[in-house]
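// run 5 | inverse folding | seed 20
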């Protein structure tokens, strides 16, 4: 049986858990059964966030943090 594609559109607000950091420094989250990738600027691994989808492509999307539910242990205070 074929999986239904993830229905995610530009402007949608989604709850995510950041899993890792991309080579460009954005947080990486995966959603849905197909592990659709969302890159989120200013997000660190372990953070649970609410984000707005600002760009959507066929295989990935990018988002902007709206709210942090928790803060990563590796997030530091600016000097």
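// decoded
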């Amino acid at each position: 049986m074929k999986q239904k594609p993830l229905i995610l559109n530009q402007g949608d607000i989604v709850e995510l858990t950041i899993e890792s950091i991309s080579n460009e420094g954005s947080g990486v989250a995966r959603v849905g059964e197909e592990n659709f990738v969302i890159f989120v600027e200013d997000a660190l691994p372990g953070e649970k966030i609410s984000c707005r989808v600002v760009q959507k492509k066929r295989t990935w999307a990018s988002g902007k943090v709206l709210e942090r539910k928790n803060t990563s242990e590796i997030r530091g205070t600016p000097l």
